[in-house]
Amino acid sequence: MPEVVAYESRPTQTPFGWGLHHVQLALPKGGEDDCRKFYVGVLGLTEVQKPPVLAARGGLWVRADNLEIHLGVEEDFKPQKKAHPGILVGDIDALAFRIESSGLAVEWDQNFPGMRRFYLWDNNGNRLEFLSPEKSN
């Protein structure tokens, strides 16, 4: 069995150069405009054009800084209440303020040592986690 390392340790370096290009979330058929209001309007991400062959399927792609989210149409859509992306944020307080200023509530959680984080549910009920390392004194 491989060794389990402490969370605080540095990530293992491999010859593969692992990274994350995007996170895929689902939305119901016809839900693009409501998602646009949430992801672009509330969160401040930028919509990017999908390649034509993929645009025909519907959905919405958004990104900003080092984050890209693809929202794809799912016929039998069910919101993800547990599974979620953990999105790193440079200024978590400013983001929480922006969200709350739009009339939505964030749910702060103190259970991840070394991180400040909150949860938010998108316009379709998908769970999102936003987190930022605690600043050392």
Can you offer a commentary on this structure?
With 137 residues, the chain is α/β, with parallel strands linked by helices. The protein has one domain (23-133): 2,3-Dihydroxybiphenyl 1,2-Dioxygenase, domain 1 (Roll). It has helices at 32-42, 52-55, 92-101; strands spanning 23-27, 46-48, 60-64, 67-73, 86-88, 107-109, 115-121, 127-133. It is globular, with a radius of gyration of 17 Å. It starts with 22 loop residues before the first strand and ends with a strand. The model has no long low-confidence stretch (mean pLDDT 94).
- Spatial order of the strands in the main sheet? 1-4-3-2
* Structural class by SSE content: alpha/beta
Distance between the termini: 38 Å
- Choose one word for the global shape: globular
CATH architecture identity: Roll
Sketch the topology as an H/E string, one letter per element. EHEHEEEHEEE
- Biggest β-sheet: count, sense, barrel? 4 strands, mixed
CATH-defined topology: 2,3-Dihydroxybiphenyl 1,2-Dioxygenase, domain 1
The level 1 CATH classification is Alpha Beta
